[in-house]
Amino acid sequence: MVQAKFISDMKRLIFSFFSVIVSWYNFAQNNNFATQKDTTHLDEIQIIGRHKLSHYRQEKTLSSIDDYLEKANKITMIKRGNYAWEPTLNNMASERLNITIDGMQIFGACTDKMDPITSYVDVSNLDNVNIGSGQSGNENGHCIGGSIDLKLPDSKFYESGLKTSVDLGYETNGNYKISGLDLEYSGKSFYFNLDGIFRKSDNYKSGNNQEVLYSQFQKYNLSLQTGIKVSENHSIDANIIYDKANDVGYPALPMDVSLAEAVITSLSHNYSNNSNFIKTLESKLYFNSITHIMDDSKRPDVPIRMDMPGWSNTFGFYSKAQVSTNKHHSSFNLNGYYNQSLAEMTMYPNNSNEPDMFMHTWPDIRTLNTGFFVKDIYQINSNAAITNSARLSYQNNRIAKEEGLESLKIFYPDIEANKSRILTSIVSVYNFKKEQYSYSFGLGYGSRAPSVSEGYAFYIFNSYDNFDYIGNPNLKNEKALEVNFSSSMHKNNFHIGIEASYFRISDYIIGDIDPTISPMTIGANGVKLHKSLDYATIFDIYLNSSYQLSSKFSVNGTIGYNYGKASNRKYLPFIKPLSYLAEINYSTQKFNAAIQLTGNGNQSQYSSFYGENKTPAYALLNCNLGNAFDYNNNKIVLKYGIENLLDTKYSTFADWNGILRQGRNFYINLSFILK
Amino acid sequence: MKIKYLLPLLFITLLSVSCSTDNTNTPHDETEGLLKIQDFSNGDYTIEVYSKSGLFYTGYNHISLRIKNLNTNKYLENANIEWMPVMQMPTMEHSCPKSEITKVENKQTIYEGYIIYQMTGMNGSGWSLTFNFTIDGVNHTIKDTINLIQSDLQNVTSFTGTDEVRYIIALVEPNQPVIGTNKIKAGLFEMESMMNFTEVTDYTIALDPRMPSMGNHTSPYNKDLSYNSTDRMYYGDLSLTMTGYWVLNLKLLNEENSVLKGEDITESNAKSSLYLEIEF
Asked: A347, B244: Cβ pair inside 8 Å?
């Protein structure tokens, strides 16, 4: 029955998708008038970071996506171990962000956030990462903090023939081994790219050579992307990613993971025609499926043995078009998805005569979301532009399991299985750019629906504050008013920039203690119910500067400050303390070297109510080097260095339960590119 | 082309063949869904006794029965029938709480009632059941021993309150507990004599369900059981947050709210002396 309903919902979605595509194509064909070419490219305006992945310019070719993301100013990774870090943007985590893979919605299957979706792709799969701060990240879905879109490579009809590359990496701390193979063929009307990467690490050691137990992991990732050019303007691309991690330890949590597996597939059609009113039209159908199985069999002492599997399946589409006229660049995006999130828990009593104890922690929640996005960039004059964008969507959540509805009715006797919401987002950014300086000012408003956990969690244990959490299906939409400002100046090799964002979030969703309810988890402090606080404010400011000493030498530095407090007069959790980074770079065509100082100040504004301790200040010294060699037509890239040179024993505010970070680590990455 | 038309035909044939096998049942089997526990017979009449499980268990038993006239082979549609369960012990005998026997609405031949067995003897022995009924002014009695199976869980408990009265509490519902809020129904009886048990009215049974295997986890929003005069049973809300073994810790309070039996659950007291058990 459940399956049948899922399929019929999917059918409806597919049908509406195709009817929209057909009407769009008609529209595209009927507006075949030529427009003048506009050379101004303003794509970067909305995007605070567009990080080109993989290609050998990074200090560590084979570093994980997590490492890449962490380098962006406003992003911090919450670490529960050495694998599957959870990104936060503007001090906001998953539920306030919209994290997508090339526009595709995908949701982790773990109730304890052990599998942020960034853990299901690898650098080898991706081309770049688009980060949109705040409401500027509203294209694919609704968010408060912003969006992270992990972009797959574009079609590669380069006619460059066959290319092979082999990557090898080794790191001493944790005996971490990486190997990767990439095979690419690019023709005039056909291409494919096949790659695989394998990573395996033992327990790492913190500063002072202390082993961090249960920090091992092992994963592999395979992907195939292929495309055919059907005609001059039309091409069809297919992509499949298979990612599987086994034996992943989470030193900060009471459980590990025996399997985290994802299949991510998509089929897309691309139309492009520069002489047309509609420049590009991209339509994609996608499906992804995640299985996540937690495991406590390696932990010697647990109060009770348990299994906690979770599943997340998402089916969706998007269709986006770009149109240009003289002064306007507009884009439209119609998208929709249907997600099924199901998680259960089985506990095995120490008295084997008693039956197993079972509950649904995510009682088969179906989320249907369809929305429409419009963006317009209007070039006022050669220096100034204004970007407006808006998104409107409809969301329905349904508790598909009758017993799930019954269990939540213990807390909310009047709820129904279905809950519908309308979500909105609107943002306006003004940009001004001159040769030596530029600035931008943005104003936004947006709302988001509660996440599956916030809405429907049933005794989900949070080891950070040691409370069991109960969702609340009646939560109001969380809304944010946002102001942001950035400015930069360049003068003679010197660059200085400042960027700041302020969010006033009303109906801020967070857990609140209900002292009348007894916890389920043995040893937990109590139960928190997801509630809405009147408001919360989050503020962040970053100052960047760099100076090009000579053609080979440069220095750069960043300093950042963040603040977050709620209407209950408590500080918000996971607000980054004062942070800084300073770097000296030397680079030539074939060699580069850098030495880097990075650290955080004292975390004075911590929130003990939400499980935080005061994390002391720390500073790290890193050093990295790189060489490139040409050998016949082939190329070898060598990257090596030392992280945490002084073997500092430290933990940051973003380390779950204060687990210790890696101590000194020597690494080497070697890449062979054979043509 | 041909196979396209043949396939549905084939399906229909298969389906009708597989369906037709069940059609031999009589259209008016009023015992459908019930299993026979035992026949009580005296040569002229047989009382067929049924329940959902087909067995007598300690605790609450909902029992259905019908009386067959062996001479006419017909079931009686208007009998006046009473019953008396008795346990024979070495030095004495006693009965247990039971209801009247009433005719089931919308049924021609079925009568129903309940018996709450509070204990059993060795190997299920010790209990007998006597039926008395009158037909055309003639009294009939049929008596037979029964086999009573000890329930795995404590679904009935008998105890003496601080008022020196002997009480029996039996769990009636939930039969099939679910994760969520369950309606809990229990019977409360006072033992007036060895043979006479009466329903107690207007007391309160305080409820605190716990899972001993989960650090004595309790569920929220339970509602104490209160008396319902319509069916003379006690009703409350029982929240169950997960499947497994639950201890329903109880306290019995009289009309003045004085505790007659049972204690609060605290850090030092994991279980009340008055409790029932469920498992699912």
From this structure: yes
Query: What b/e string do you get for A451-472 counting C-beta neighbours within 10 Å, with b at 16 or more?
Result: bbbbbbbbbbbbbbbebbbbbb
B35-149 matches B156-279 in fold: yes
Give how many domains chain A has, as a whole number: 1
Closest Cα in chain B to A518:
B218
The CATH number for A587's domain is 2.40.170.20
Position A78 scores a pLDDT of 95
**Percentage of chain B lying above the pLDDT 70 cut:** 90
CA atoms within 13 Å, Cβ hemisphere of A429? 30
Nearest to B66 by CA among B34, B94, B95: B34
Distance (Å) from the C-alpha of residue A526 to the closest C-alpha of chain B? 11
Contact yes or no for A520 and B213 at CB 8 A: no
Residues of B with CB below 8 A from A409's CB? 180-181
Pairing of β B245-253 and β A305-324: unpaired
Query: CA-nearest residue of chain A to B179?
Result: A407
Count Cβ atoms below 10 Å from residue A162 Cβ, excluding itself. Answer: 11
Residue partners of A453: CB distance under 8 A and separation at least 6 = A95, A111, A362, A460, A469, A471, A530
B264 CB near a chain A CB, below 8 Å?
Answer: no
User: In the CATH scheme, what is the code of domain B35-149?
Assistant: 2.60.40.10
Structure tokens at B277: 């058990």
**Can you name the residues that pair with A142 across neighbouring β-strands?**
none
ipTM confidence: 0.82
Taking all residues of chain A, what is their mean pLDDT, rounded to a whole number? Answer: 89
Q: Is the pLDDT at A219 greater than 60, yes or no?
A: yes
Q: Using CB atoms and an 8 Å cut-off, which of residues 239-258 of chain B contact chain A?
A: 239, 241-245
The hierarchical CATH code for the domain B156-279 is 2.60.40
Domain regions of chain B by residue span: 35-149, 156-279
Q: Is residue A25 scored above 70 in pLDDT?
A: no
Q: What is the DSSP string of A204-216?
A: -EEGGGEE-TT--
Parent domain of A527: 2-674
Report in angstroms the alpha-carbon separations of A253 from A214, A327, A379. Answer: 9, 53, 51
Q: Assess whether the previous peptide bond of B174 is cis (omega < 30° from 0).
A: yes
Band (A450; pLDDT cuts 50, 70, 90): very high
β-pairing, A305-324 with A328-348? antiparallel
